[in-house]
């Protein structure tokens, strides 16, 4: 029996399972999924879990069940491309015939001293739970600093403002305006929303150091009761340690068919893959669709295509609490309640379809 091993049950891994199970997996092939959690986690909603506006159960979706799907729970320590094995902490290594690496990302601290020690995170469900405990145990009037005003930072700040309006939230951004990946119109809309809801924004920030309850902006110490880091990501350390070619962001360079150059048995999906578009759940899912197509052709002994269709994303949505939102749908800016309803609908459909 051949073994397709999926590392990580994130958005890419989950989409591969959906497309192969129950009827598209060859009879001579089994799947081994390796993940730290016994369920698929909705990472795009970790900000709400950390803020306390949704429960832990709300960000989980069960993995599918199938007689040839074996799910292992554990911590991956190393991938040996030569031995075609995945090594786990306190478990026997797992051999693979085909491998899909979808291990996601970690916080990137940009060499800021103390940032990895004294800040909270929303990069994993475990860290989001810990962040929730700290933020929701703060006394009224406490001050919270959020470093990074991209999508994650903005959604966390707005959700925390709704969950704990008694807190003083300060959002730090190194750019001239927040949400640099979006249009200026959307940026101004979100900035106006924050002003109305008494969330302070510090533009042109330069965080030089973090100490216990102290954030240094341009070397000026600012006291906070809690500090959350949302200022960048990098591939999982296991992927960073792989002896393969990577781009400037540390993501793995792939062939057009999404496998390692010279090794068509190893694919990389999601945040660890070097792609023309910025990492996102939607991108991981679309990439996974193409990986499944390649796997099917490979298993059937058919020639692989020399090129793949360009991945086109439908848009990006962000929330501002439970009633307002912003985003792009087919390059059209949308704000207000309609944007929030669209995002809620997308999330509901995803959970219903997968669960």
Automatic annotation (TrEMBL):
<dbReference type="GO" id="GO:0019646">
    <property type="term" value="P:aerobic electron transport chain"/>
</dbReference>
<dbReference type="InterPro" id="IPR036188">
    <property type="entry name" value="FAD/NAD-bd_sf"/>
</dbReference>
<protein>
    <submittedName>
        <fullName>FAD-dependent oxidoreductase</fullName>
    </submittedName>
</protein>
<dbReference type="InterPro" id="IPR051169">
    <property type="entry name" value="NADH-Q_oxidoreductase"/>
</dbReference>
<dbReference type="GO" id="GO:0003955">
    <property type="term" value="F:NAD(P)H dehydrogenase (quinone) activity"/>
</dbReference>
<dbReference type="InterPro" id="IPR023753">
    <property type="entry name" value="FAD/NAD-binding_dom"/>
</dbReference>
<comment type="similarity">
    <text>Belongs to the NADH dehydrogenase family.</text>
</comment>
<keyword id="KW-0285">Flavoprotein</keyword>
<dbReference type="Pfam" id="PF07992">
    <property type="entry name" value="Pyr_redox_2"/>
</dbReference>
<keyword id="KW-0274">FAD</keyword>
<feature type="domain" description="FAD/NAD(P)-binding">
    <location>
        <begin position="3"/>
        <end position="282"/>
    </location>
</feature>
<keyword id="KW-0560">Oxidoreductase</keyword>
